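Can anyone check this?
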Amino acid sequence: MLTTANNSPAAPVEVARWCASRGWPVHPLALGRKTPAGNCAACRAHPHRPQDCPCLARGGWCHGFHAATTDTRLLDSWWSANPGFGVGVSCGAARLVVVDVDAHSVPVPERARLLPGIRIDDRVDLSGMTTGFDTLALLAAYRGRPDPAEDVSTLRVRTPSGGLHVWYDASAHPTLFRSSTGSGSRAALAWQVDVRADGGYIVAPGTRTQDGDYRPVGPARAPAPLPGWLADELLRTGHGEDPLPRRTAATAPATARAGAAGTGEARRVLGPLLDEVRECAATPEGAGFSEKLNRAAYTAGGLVAAGSLAADEARGLLHDAAEAARPWQSRRNDRIIEGGLDAGHRHPFRLRESP
């Protein structure tokens, strides 16, 4: 969880593992800060696209959320070397939408900029409006819906500056939502209300920075499904991307399509990991199911990337094993599988050739 048995804050590596167990890929944040840990000297000296970075294939953390993973072996390695690193969560890979409510002391803009796309009648008294809490509440009131900042059903995290992160699970929505910052950008929900989604990251609850702690508030410790009305507002304000594609054999790289049934060596490597997942059926709780499924998915993703296993077969094998052990949580199983496959796909698992 986010605290230890004696209610003290959990160590960063424990926070990272807690997030990964929920299928949320994580990456290190710089010591005491809310920004990603810096790139290595080679990456700083020779700028390149994150997807072309050799550090990621070697288990490095360069390029912020692009290096995010649920592989506990990498997490243990990263935080063993740097125990003070904070924890960031890659929102797009985790299918999270986090409403980031700010409480900065800045001048209030004209009413036309408070709620982009919504005309606020001159008769509406705005004299008490000072922060994003006010504009988010106003948006909810206009739609006749509850204020997300007061939503006790979902994970909410208080920030050191007095703001609030309201976490929602968008995995059931067919659209991949994009991030936004500021009401003057192309996509904007409300003044002093940012959106953390695809193309961005969020500071994990339990993380400590030089400015203070990111503390969960209220009873919820998991994101609730994204409310339909809020999804509609995100689409209205330009946060929607193309429908989320599922990586299949038709869209995977050519090397990943080699061998529709996979190689015997690939099945030998993956088989024991799938067996560990299935064996969790005998233990409803406390069997390390999420970690075992993530490990199998990560390995499968690496085999797909190396061309040793077909993407469709990998996904099918993982799904069948997960359903055999935890059939009552199919959506969560799929989230862990997709996160593990995506992370593993960035680290090809090249099998040794037979002599």
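Reply from J.R.: I decoded it. DSSP finds eleven helices and 13 strands in the chain.
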